[in-house]
Amino acid sequence: MHKLVVAVVALLALSACGRDPGTRALTGGAIGAGAGAVVGSATGIGPIGGAVVGGVGGAAIGAATTPRY
User: Fold this and answer.
1) pTM of the prediction?
2) How far apart are CA 7 and CA 11, in angstroms?
3) What is the pLDDT of residues 53-68, one digit of tens each?
4) pLDDT by residue (tens digit) across 37-48?
5) What's the rounded Cα separation, in Å, for the pair 34 and 40?
6) Residue 31 pLDDT level (bands cut at 50, 70, 90)
7) In whole angstroms, what is the distance from residue 62 CA to residue 56 CA?
8) Phi and psi of 46, rounded to 5°?
9) CA separation for the pair 6, 54 (Å, rounded)
10) What b/e readout covers 44-62, taking b as 16+ CB neighbours within 10 angstroms?
11) Cα separations in angstroms, 43 against 27, 36, 40, 60, 63
């Protein structure tokens, strides 16, 4: 569990990366997958199901947002 928390923190540190929609979708998907795995582990969904749902949601939100400088 400790490694998972460290991984999520590392992914959150990368959340501001990306100037184009593809890069933001990639980083958003990675952050969403990490967070989804943590939430899925704590609930009945399981880490894999949570990672899939979080990854898809994070990628969609990352692609839809615009960069702020």
Assistant:
1) 0.69
2) 6
3) 989 998 988 888 877 6
4) 988 888 888 999
5) 10
6) confident
7) 10
8) 100, 155
9) 17
10) ebebeebbbbbbebbbeeb
11) 24, 10, 5, 23, 27
Provide the pLDDT for residue 42: 87
Q: Where are the domains of the chain?
A: 2-64
The pair of structure tokens assigned to 60 is 């969609």
First to last CA, the chain: 34
Amino acid at 24: R
Instruction: Show the DSSP H helices in 14-67 as ranges.
Output: 21-42, 47-64
| CA distances (Å), origin 32, targets 61, 63, 69 | 9, 13, 22
